[in-house]
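Entry type: protein chain
Record version: 2
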Amino acid sequence: MSRRFRLVDVFGLEPLTGNPLAVVIDSDGLVSDEMLEITRWLGYSETTFLAPPDADGADYKVRIFSRAGELPFAGHPTLGSCHVWQTLADESRDHIVQECGAGLVRLRREEGRYAFAAPGLTRDGPVEPAFVESLASVLGIQVDDIVESKWVDNGPGWVGVMLADAETVLALQPDFSRRDGDGPLEIGVVGMYPEGSEFAYEVRAFFSDQRGDMVEDPVTGSLNASVAQWMLQTGRVRGSYIASQGGRLGRSGRIHVTPGPDGGVWVGGNVFDVVAGELADTAQMKANPIAPA
């Protein structure tokens, strides 16, 4: 069977300026290895697979895959998947509940954008001094250049590094070959803009792929969610604001952050439809390969 899919742009100021996401709509019958294979072939930072929910109270279920494997939660896949599900379901409700590996995630529509309620952190607190030294080496800076470091992991494994300002963040030229040890590495770097600027701060996200090579993500919802919690808790930002990401990659990521009355944080952005199509039945293609001419 062929499977419907959508390619959407998430968090961009306008189409083709954010982070692309592939959403496979008809995921029935696919096993995890096949989902990972599709994700790696498509080559985007994440691909999601929609299915009916298992949990009470959820509107739909999504499985989120990066090229390195399945993720319990990720931000731009959450917004993009919600948009695709709502469009196909012809739902106009402003409040939606997504089921994913991290549990139930609340979403809403606000001013034409989608926003998700930031999940709690799975790891918090200060970073070990030896690891801070390794992070500084990877980022090509001195330990003294780091204003603050903190675990800000809400599923993918993020460690947060704050530098002096946005200009310093944009100038970074990291190199994962300079790291100590091996295994996955997800670094989020943030630097404030001057007071009165259009954006509160600049964000860059670096992570290792399945080969251990460094990838820079254009716009990262999960990281922005945990950074927003960090910045609000420390009083570096107050009220609603916009963060920027993707400038070094030629993107115009705009992340809208809104504190909730219950102390939570909502993270929102635009979602634009770009491509609608069908994935061929890969199992049938493998069973009946066409010989090369």
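Comment: The mean pLDDT is 93.
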